[in-house]
Amino acid sequence: MKKHPVREKIRYVFDYLLSKGPVAMIGLLLAVTMTIVGIIGIVANLCSEDGGVIYHIWNSFLHTLDPGTISGNDASNVPYLVMMTLATLCGLFLTSILIGIITSGVEDKLNDLRKGLSVVQEKNHVVIIGFNDNTFTLLQELVEANANHKNCCIVLLGEQDKEEMEETVAARMPDTKTTHIICRTGSLHEFYSLERCAVENCRSVIVNLHEDAQVIKTILALSAYVKEKEILNPDMYFIASILDKQHLEAARIAGEGRAEIIYAKDTISRIIAHTCRQHGLSQVIAEILNFSGNEMYLERVPEMVGKTFHEAQLSFVNAVPVGLQIGDRVYLNPKMDTVIGEKDLMVLLEMDDGEYALCAPTKVNDRMINNGVYCALREKDHLLILGSNDKLPMILREYSQYVDPASEVVVVDEEMSDDYLAETYGLNITQCQQPVRRNLLQQLVRQGTNILLLNDDSQDGETSDANTLLNLILLRDIAENEQQHFSITTEMRNPENQRLAVRARVDDFVIGSNFIGLLMAQIAENHKMLPLIQELLNEEGCEFYMKSASQYVPLGVEVNGFVLAESAARKGEVYVGYRKRTPTPQPVQVNTDKNEPLVFSENDLIVVIAEE
């Protein structure tokens, strides 16, 4: 075995002590000081006949701490004066080192605080893992959801510098209302990072990442962390979105029963298929998913215990009962004769939780209700699709469930592969492999056409969004110059570009990755809402429909929301709102005051939740 020189051993011990931080360094400095003070005190005792060893050691210590003490020494005893001067010089040197150590230690601690290395001391907060463009959609929605609650907290965990994240959040969101946002820096799937975010004390974790592999890896880390910390809170869960269907099961397995997984492409495809099918339906879906308007809440309403779901439709002035939670299961639009139990929760569509106003069940005059049975016929539609991507087959498959098989679908994309249209989908589909030009659009667009602008996934986000914006401008110009009315549903990838595309046309709708953020924020507030939202976007079960007002009430006669609610309830439907289209199309009105007087015309629509 090689023997190391004493010098190297001393250096090793010294380096080891220095690596222990400021406390160890101060301890080492104290030991050196005491050694020097002791040696000088002993030597000074030999140079002076006054006092003993303890006295001179103490005197040496005073000279080390206070350089001014040297002025009181006897100048005639030169050796003694030399020793005390040496003690004073050592004191100056050691004090300088001590100040440097303390200053360095304080700076290191401040740097640690700036880097976000301390453990969050919050409880019942929301943790967002991943810092990207979608983060701000999540923050805006969660801040809005917390607006009527005090001292709420959101913790952001990102790989970016803490100060950079804080500056970006402050610039994009200057007003966070009652919510304070804490940023932490670290590896997104390491235990020490999760511990800094106090995951064990939070109510939900949003995995805000774009790559499926990273999402699943983070979910695995969260599940392992929960096990190691022995977290027994059954209400704490994770929310994540997956892009590839083949990774769905792996993500659910990784979550071990705590993960709510959203299949992003399927969800966006369903929203697109619904919104380009019925003019104005996009506004209803946006309102439901957005916390700034009406949203769904689970509420315990003691006044409704023992009453039927039908009676509940006529008992809320400014809220809409859309479902019930019975036991652990939530039912959307249950049978109207369902009796509300003492432990049941109501799913209310309202502006904010707890803001509903009750009244005695309102009696409605039968003469104000159209009780005829209407056959649910699928309408023949005309859909123009500009561009294509891997969501197109899912969109066409969902779209075909609601329209007449004779409906015309024209897909314009000069580079589209025939594989996209390998299925017939039960639709009359025409493929146009030409570049999008104004003269081509003028030939294809006609009154009442539904237009869908799809994002090109083969291009980068900015280039694809720029081409989509160009086509959108052409279409709007055609609509204005030729006095045509058609709805436009636009898919965009960058949230900033989505804001550029928004315009005050009631039938236009822009969809993108921010919708997944809206959905994730809704689930983070209450994960039991996920099955309800999925049902609303699925051809099975209950969905939103916009039906002619003449199916519910006489036209040209003054009615109110209670009449509409009763008419819909007799058909097994839930009245949600209405849309006036006379003389010009107006925005959809959702959850209005039911006492408001209304008069409907031939083209006006009623928004309901129904099975058909």
Walk me through what this model shows:
It is a single chain. By secondary structure, the chain is an alpha/beta fold. Among the domains are: 110 residues; 132 residues, 3-Layer(aba) Sandwich (Rossmann fold), CATH 3.40.50.720; 131 residues, NAD(P)-binding Rossmann-like Domain (Rossmann fold, 3-Layer(aba) Sandwich). 40% of the residues lie in helices and 17% in strands. It has 19 helices and 20 strands. Helix 8 links the parallel strand 4 and strand 5. Helix 2 packs across helix 3 and helix 2 packs antiparallel against helix 4. The longest helix has 38 residues.
Essential attributes:
612 residues, alpha/beta, Rossmann fold, 6-stranded parallel sheet, 40% helix
**CATH topology heading of the domain at 126-257:** Rossmann fold
Structural class: alpha/beta
Low-confidence stretches: none
CATH superfamily of the domain at 126-257: NAD(P)-binding Rossmann-like Domain
Largest sheet: 6 strands, parallel
Task: Please outline the helices and strands.
Blueprint: H1 6-19, H2 22-47, H3 53-65, H4 78-115, E1 126-129, H5 134-145, E2 152-158, H6 162-172, E3 179-185, H7 191-196, E4 204-207, H8 212-228, E5 237-242, H9 248-255, E6 259-263, H10 264-275, H11 281-289, E7 295-299, H12 309-313, E8 320-326, E9 329-332, E10 345-350, E11 382-386, H13 392-399, E12 408-412, E13 428-432, H14 438-444, E14 450-453, H15 461-481, E15 487-492, H16 495-501, E16 509-512, H17 514-525, H18 530-536, E17 543-548, H19 561-570, E18 574-579, E19 589-590, E20 605-610
Parallel strand pairs: 1-2, 1-4, 2-3, 4-5, 5-6, 11-12, 11-14, 12-13, 14-15, 15-16
Antiparallel strand pairs: 7-10, 8-9, 8-10, 17-20, 18-19, 18-20
